[in-house]
Amino acid sequence: MFKSKTSQKEPKQQLEDMDETTISLILQACKLARDLESNLPNLANQPNLLSNSLDEITKNFVTARERVYGQDPSTSSCLHNMLTFAHQQQIGTSHVQEWLRSNYAQQAMDIIQTQLVVDQKEAKIGGCIDDDDAEVKGLQAMEASDMNVASSSSQRPRRRKDQGLISKITVPAPRIGNTEIPPEDGFTWRKYGQKEIMGSRFPRGYYRCTHQKLYNCPAKKQVQRLDNDPLTFEVMYRGEHTCHMSATAPSIPPPSAEHHNATQESMARTLATTTTTDPPTASLWLSMDFNPIRGGGGSSSGMIGSSRGGGGGGSGDGVGTSTTTRYGKEVDFPVVDLADAMFNSGSSSTNSMDFIFTSAENKWESEDKKN
DNA sequence: CCGATTTGACCTCC
DNA sequence: GGAGGTCAAATCGG
């Protein structure tokens, strides 16, 4: 897989062409969503208005989506999901309310927006890569082979460029609270390194899944702040999380069972005996704490595994603090899937958001999937 | 005591 | 040889 090489991306041009209008449509929709959010209390008892508002938003998204599709399907999946989601919103207003109310919307929009930015800047990667597109300038995927590396040079198996780049996204730093903390993504990460990168003002943080050892979860991510925009993190994910998919891996401890199967339950059980901070299947994750900061500013409202270990003292400038996350409550909105899709990006990032709304709109999905 | 972070050293790739 | 990725000892905190 991960064959190659970037340059097959001429639609880049098209992208640029479409962006202006399309993006403005999307932003417009986002804005409307925010407005809706702020007026939610008032609209709550005015179903008609609420409905109109939702229609409005949906319309924008749908239009945008159509435009996107008309241009470059490869970049549309993320948008598409967002749009589909908008569609779905009509289906269950209560969900929408919750969604909007909880800031997830904001975050989701941020993601979408940044995703677009990435798409533009690097039409080759854009958070929407899948097997076909997976490329990385220097990263040659060697998943298979990377199992038996180790051998060559006498010493410990130290390899690089393993697993290939799966997805790369830029994520806005929290708007509130501590902007130094890289955004959560629903998984538990353990920082294993930090390095100054040539030409970058900020160091790059290296994280791997907390369950790497226990469950052989190969997921890793690199977090780095953008030089020109310290409030934005560029996150590169590599490898997929197997820790919440594998039958042996811990997953979300489904609190109020509902949409999870037996496997998950058993996983949850397993989990219960191993750890308490776990990769909430993104599903839950989103619903629980999409926005790390929102709870409480600086002093951690228990959102991030906070900077426990390591000499706190000023070192990790920037990327520092861990992203170890912890969630707890149960919730269960459709949004959950949004989460799942977005950050479960470990793998086919393209579909990052594909899962999100599948139930609502299958037709779109089918189209999308083939990219 | 256990688990997470820090940090310098080491290793691989270009 | 240099840059980037990973390891692992030291350290810290619950």
UniProtKB/TrEMBL annotation:
Signal peptide: none
Cellular localisation: Nucleus
Sorted UniProt keywords: DNA-binding, Nucleus, Transcription, Transcription regulation
Any Pfam family: WRKY
Classification via InterPro entries: WRKY_dom, WRKY_dom_sf, WRKY_plant
UniProt key word Glycoprotein: no
Compositional bias per record (Low complexity), positions renumbered to this chain: 270-282
Gly residues compositional bias, start-end: 307-319
Main location group: nucleus
Disordered: region residues: 145-165, 250-283, 297-325
Keyword Translocase: no
GO CC annotation terms, alphabetical: nucleus
Superkingdom: Eukaryota
WRKY domain segment(s): 184-246
Example GO molecular function: sequence-specific DNA binding
Protein name: WRKY transcription factor 55
Annotated source species: Prunus avium
